[in-house]
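Exercise 7. Given the components listed, write out the predicted structure of the assembled complex. Treat all entries as one system.
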Amino acid sequence: MAKVTMIEAINRAHAWEMSHDPSVVVLGQDVGLNGGVFRATAGLQEQFGKDRVQDTPLAEGMIAGMAIGMATQGLRPVAEIQFMGFIYPALDQIGNHMARMRNRTRGRLTCPVVIRMPHGGGIHAPEHHSECLESLLAHHAGLRVVCPSSPARAYGLLLAAIRDPDPVIFLEPSRLYRLVKQEINDDGQALPLNVCYRLREGNDVTVVTWGAMVTDTLRAAERLEGEGVSCEVLDLATLSPIDHDTIIESVVKTGRLVIVHEAPRNCGIGAEIAATVAERALYDLHAPIKRVTGYDTIIPLSRLEHDYIPNTARITDAVRETLAE
Amino acid sequence: MTIFNLPDLGEGLAEAEIVRWHVNVGDAVIVDQPMLAVETAKAIVEVPVPFSGVVKALHGQPGDIVETGAPLIELESKRSTTDAGTVVGNVPTSDEELIESAYAGGRGNNGHSAHSANGTNGANANNGITPHSANGQLRAAPAARSLARKLNIDLTQLTGSGPGGVIIVDDVIAHSNAPSNKPSAPTPTAARPQATPFTGGEQLRGLRRAMAQSMTLAHDNVANCTIFDDADLHRWHESKDFTPRLLRAIAAACQAEPALNAWFDGATQIRRELPEINVGMAVDTPHGLIVPIIRDVGSRSASQLRGEIDRLKRAARDRSIAPEDLRDATFMLTNFGMMAGRYATPVVLPPTVAILGSGRLSRDVVAVNDRVEAHLRMPLSLTFDHRCVTGGEAARFLAAVLRDLEKDN
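Answer.
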């Protein structure tokens, strides 16, 4: 048992899997000598050598392409993209090759790649360092998109992602990297992918969220409990494919749904959840579904970013409005 | 432990000779205090302590030559060496410990438990919270919920007849129409006044029941608007047979303004102007209101009209009237003035779009040029369906009625 931050949990998951599976390799810009832009891979090159922890040039397309080549030839690469805003040059490799390798080769080749990247704002970073582009990736068939919200889930889900036979995009909420510590067992135990995690049980309203917004949502639920409102909070955790069954089961129980995400509203994952609940549980709803999201603008720079990112007040307001219906 | 190397002392000098140390191993030093003196090719230079700490080792003795960039002193720094954890921005930190009781969903809640501090599955996360109302399992179409809210109906009282027992709009309406379930408060969709329950009385039948239904339909659907005026009959000579004159005036007005001799279907929004003028004439009978039709009013003489009026009135009163004499009215006339009442707001009966009422005649004082005279006048009330007839059309129609009525014969 050890109390660790999310970044340490990610580091330990790498170390565990590299110790137990010699096919696991790490690559990315500054992941070796420097230990990664946020220190996710600190110490790994020292421990596992330059062959297994490779510094690459500043070339995201090349990083993704290298990972695909390694993966199809028997390695299990874990690649780091320094910030999600830098994903665009890699999208060609990810969308046109990584996601469809199994399909293209009719199952002859699989592509067990993990591409990790910091996700979201709230760290006063410059442009291109605060994006939530999960919808962009979730829209590709053949990719699993995962986003942990705690050190324990970062550890368990990353292990599961590395062991998954198909490509996984692993989004790490950068403002949670060092926010809290949590006891974890560094025992190599993976968590299931493609299920939601129920963080709080409640009866009045279901709140679905993920990543860094989980922290604010739990705070809102705490505040609402003082008003006699019982919120059920689900951490989506795997953004694609979505565990709709758990959401529907909860909405049937509560009759109300609020979806909270940091990404822009338009074509966000919240829209997909809302549409599926409308298709499968419309008659169980007591009130229209509400979304609390980032705005359909470029995320502002540091001075305004906290006005963009949904906060506890916006979440509690939405829950109250839903209950007033 | 931090090693401080001999800095470039300027002027591109490659080396310097240590003259004397001002500090010793074990000294606690603070930033900028004198550390040592070195002699370069040009001068003796004092080098200050670069940061606060404790001296761990000195590299070189007085008289030694040290190259620029070579180790000079080792300091154990009090300076924070904590890694900010990022090369850009500012990653927030706290001393908070996360204790959560997450469990994986989607598998009957028996999925793999997360590494939680207390190992429970979150079942105790709901301590002290009031359970949700009995509506927890209620399934209802959103439109049904909305209607029930408007009608102040408690959905838990309903049984659903939709797929899988879902409560649908029809269930709410059926519940609302059941006599014992009238909503407690009047609402926009239940605007009909709720009569105070009483005992005794008779069930409406026959003509009176038909009147109740057609008037309710008319009231609920038509946008009634009534305009009033008086026809000055001062120029009339001997003839005092009013109804044929009224029919003639209506025919003339329909010529002048055909929009009021028409049918309108509110559901399809179709309006049809009619070539023939068939005037329905309200007849009061002991059994209720009956409206026989006088056909093709425009092409009949006064005496023909009188004959037809008498025949229909008789038939109406002895209830021998033929069904075809009650169909296809294009305009309505109600003449209530034999008894009392000067003006009224007659009700338009769909599909017709207008009705003219004539009230009790009286001799009125009127101004004629500069004199006052007493003239016989007929009060008129024209109601039109404002959904499909404009105020202008109605006013032109009434003007034409007045023009024709005010002729001497």
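Discussion: Chain B touches chain A through 49 residues (CB under 8 Å). Chain B has three domains: 2-77, 138-190, 210-405.
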